[in-house]
Amino acid sequence: MPSAQRRFLTVMTALSVSLFAVPTYAAPDDLGQLTRGCLNTDGTWAPKDRVNACGSILANYPLAPMQEARIRANRAWSLGQEQRLADAQADYDRALQLDPNSAVLYNERGFFHLRIGEFDAALRDYNSAIVIDPQFPYALFGRGIAYMRKGELSRGQDDLAAARRIDNSIDAAFRNAGVTP
Q1: Which of 8, 122, 178, 179 could make an S-S bridge to 114, C-beta 3.0–4.6 Å?
Q2: Domain encompassing residue 115
Q3: Residue 40 falls within a domain, yes or no?
Q4: Could you tell me which residues come within 8 angstroms of residue 5 by beta carbon, excluding any fewer than 6 positions away?
């Protein structure tokens, strides 16, 4: 098996580990534990600890570009929670350089911009996500909110309605993330 494929399988296996009996401390070489922390699969890791876990993975393990993009996006989310906005932006930007065809990454960076009030930047990212996946309800809903926050109510309502037709639970998902139209 080629080296790159072996590394990919190692990280993907670590990403899909069971959530049972997760200890709260990880030795620096424990890729599975670091991955659980970076992805916060058990919901107990604080943002600072998630940032550190993601950073350890990036610094110590060879990753395929899409893997690195996912780790950077997860770290960016946690950096945003810590109000380290420039660092979060840099990680989102790098993630998209590594995986420029990911509607999910554009959507996540759009949500980041939406939450910090950068509506034009949010719209650019949501538009990019929708070009890649026109039926992506989260991108449509986020774009709708961004349009509404800019005062473009009709465009916003159209996007919200389109997103709700695709996923009727979309309002709850955004409400749980602290964002409402």
Answers
A1: 122
A2: 101-181
A3: yes
A4: none
Concatenate the DSSP letters of all residues of the chain into one string.
Answer: --HHHHHHHHHHHHHT---TT--S---TT-HHHHHHHHHTTTS---HHHHHHHHHHHHHHS---HHHHHHHHHHHHHHHHHTT-HHHHHHHHHHHHHH-TT-HHHHHHHHHHHHHTT-HHHHHHHHHHHHHH-TT-HHHHHHHHHHHHHTT-HHHHHHHHHHHHHH-TTHHHHHHHTT---
For residue 69, give both structure tokens.
């993009």
The reply to whether 40 and 14 lie within a common domain is yes
> Which pTM was predicted?
0.81
- The 10s digit of each residue's pLDDT in 121-144 is 999 999 999 999 999 999 999 999
Given a cut of 90, whether residue 169 has pLDDT beyond it is yes
